[in-house]
Structure formats: C-alpha cells, structure tokens
C-alpha cells in the first residue's frame, strides 16, 4: 500500500533549522498504482497492483471500465524496465524493486486534468536488499 505521509503533517521539515531535503511536487488525484519486480532468472515475478488488489491475471477486473493498472504497465513498458534494472543491479544484492505512482486521467476520480487517456506519475522507487540494507 502507498501510505506516504502528507507534508502538511510534518511542518518541522520546513523550518530554517531543518537539515531534511525535500522536493515540492503536485498531489495528483488519481488511483494508486504499484509495480514490483522480485527474484532473478526463472524465479523472477512481476506484480501490478492497485492500493488493495494484486492483478495476477491481465484480464482481472478492477473498479474502472478498463484495467488502468495493467494499461499503465503496458503503456510505459514497466516490466521490461524493472527487469533491466534488476539485471543491472544484480551484484548489489537487490531482492526487489518497487515503483509507486498515481494513475490519472479520463474517468479516474472525476479529474481529467484536461488530458486525453490515462497517465502515470511516479513518486517513489523502493530498492529491497536481501540483507536489509
């Protein structure tokens, strides 16, 4: 699940004495979308998820008229990109890579942003190390 803390709940980040680094972004009103690649070789597994559902089958129904989660995976070629990242980082003892983002556009949360179709904005990339580091 994506449960990123809202900056409005962390005012200490914005004080003059803070050593925290931050980047201001826009909160897009869409649907939480997560992609994970884990394992290596034949044991590699690619997962596409909404906030609460793993879409283990491409035709698995979702809340929207079409499966916008698998649509984003295909549109942005996420599986191949994560697979390449895993291969490039193989020596780093990476157990998984997860990308979290927001899918938005036509028919999602009644906010179309004046754009046609559906789009994905990434807000988090998580690298999972076997040794926990």
Proportion of residues in extended strands: 25-35%
Strand order of the largest sheet: 2-1-3-4
What order do the helices and strands follow? EEHHEE
Q: Detail the poorly predicted runs.
A: none
Distance between the termini: 21 Å
**Rg result:** 17 Å
Number of DSSP-assigned strands: 4
Label this structure with key terms.
single chain, 133 residues, alpha+beta, 2 helices, 14% helix, flat
Secondary structure layout plus pairing:
Blueprint (H helix, E strand, L loop, with lengths): L30 E8 L6 E5 L18 H8 L2 H11 L5 E12 L12 E12 L4
Textual characterization of the structure:
This protein has helices at 68-75, 78-88; strands spanning 31-38, 45-49, 94-105, 118-129. It is α+β, with helices and mostly antiparallel strands and 133 residues long. β1 and β2 form a beta hairpin. It is flat, with a radius of gyration of 17 Å. 19% of the residues are buried. The mean pLDDT is 83.
Structure described in brief:
With 133 residues, this protein is an alpha+beta fold. It has helices at residues 68-75, 78-88; strands at 31-38, 45-49, 94-105, 118-129.
